[in-house]
Amino acid sequence: MSYALSLTAQTHEELKRLGDLQAFDLEGLEDNPVLKSVTDFAANLCDTPIALVSFVERDRQWFPAKTGLDARETPRETSFCVHTMQGQGIMIVSDAASDPRFLDNALVVGEPGIRFYAGAPLVSEDGVQLGALCVIDRSPRSDLTPVQREGLQVLATTIVVQLAERRSRRRQNAELGEQESKFRILADTMPQMVWSTRPDGFHDYYNARWYEFTGMPAGSTDGSGWNGMFHPDDQDRAWSAWHHCLETGDPYEIEYRLRDASGEYRWTLGRALPIRDRNGAITRWFGTCTDIHDHKMSQAQREIVAQELSHRIKNIFSVISGLISFSTRQRPELADVAGDLRNRILALGRAHDFVRPHSEASRPEKRPNSLSGMLADLLAAYAERVTISGEEMIIDDHSATPLALTFHELATNAAKYGALAATDGSVSIVCTIENDHACIVWIERGGAVVYEPSDYGFGSKLIELSVMRQMGGTMERTWSQQGLEVRFEVPLSAMLRRSNRGP
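The chain above was modelled as a monomer; its predicted structure follows.
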């Protein structure tokens, strides 16, 4: 039949429609209870013995939900719903036996003996023709009532909305699956160990590098099993830090010793950040473990060398102090001068402790926590010629070293060429707070006339590195006949940093 042939002709539009159907996952709707409740209600509403939800495919129409009919599908060439989905609004066939389109249709001349048909198209918002919601009677009828028409259309719209939501979820799941697949591929090729947890901290993912490094079977460190991989001396500390982060949402960062596949413990840096939804609730934690053992060992070796150098430098101060004492015994009349000189040398030793690099092990337990206290210790060798005034500023161990380097260098230069090189020269240090910045002014008076050098040496570059780059501050020098003035402005946040890590 030419009509049937035209229906089954695989035009470009029809091929596209059939492809679009795949996005709805219609096969998963077979015997769907929600759709079944729709057909039951439609049959009752329209007072018909049969109601169907029909999806039209290439060669068939099939019924994921049906009321009053045993057949699960029929050939597409006998389908009424093909016409419905291609039309606009509800399609009514009052008597199929007298309708030229259907009078010799197998569903009319045979079972189920269709006479009356009313169908509402199932067409998505973007125009994908899916099928129809239809009601069927074995006796001719002129039409549906207005209420029945409206009800059938409302039910069809409800089905289309559900199908659109189903397609959207399917697409989202496919996108998430693709993203997860890409993430796993990326994570498995990373040199770092990568892990992820649920919001409550339950570890449910590790990349291939984790299992390669630890030698543990897949899944054996899920949940809280990871903590058993740490050195016994690090487990309580790591567990406490992790729980702190889970309770507060703070980023996680800690160094610990992790057991590798050979049974040895290697120093590792663990980090993690929370992933939050639009409302700020944590949905997952993503973390990494980085092997820093070689760096840690190199750091320890450098620390040993630094301590040895520092020890030797302090020994030099001690030797000089001893030589002064020895000379004093030969020249008692120089005792007062010698005592003053020894005090200055001891002050230089204290300054050395400020400016040399420190590790956690070598850092002094007690250090002045104020800028004025640190400067007083640092410049004790010139105490009677240096005044410190202004506002009190709190500092921490992060800012103490660059500040000590800066003012030690200024004092050294002043002792060589500036105010402290002259008998009656002096230095004033004035500290104020302006617009969330610490303003520190170094003022030299009473020394030789100074001039701006044509080329700045290493010491000046060291000051710039400490103040400008390390602390994010600014520096301004003023060369005048009265003496050098240097003004520093440093953000208060760089003077005292608040840690956001766990305990």
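The first strand starts at residue 50 and ends at 56.
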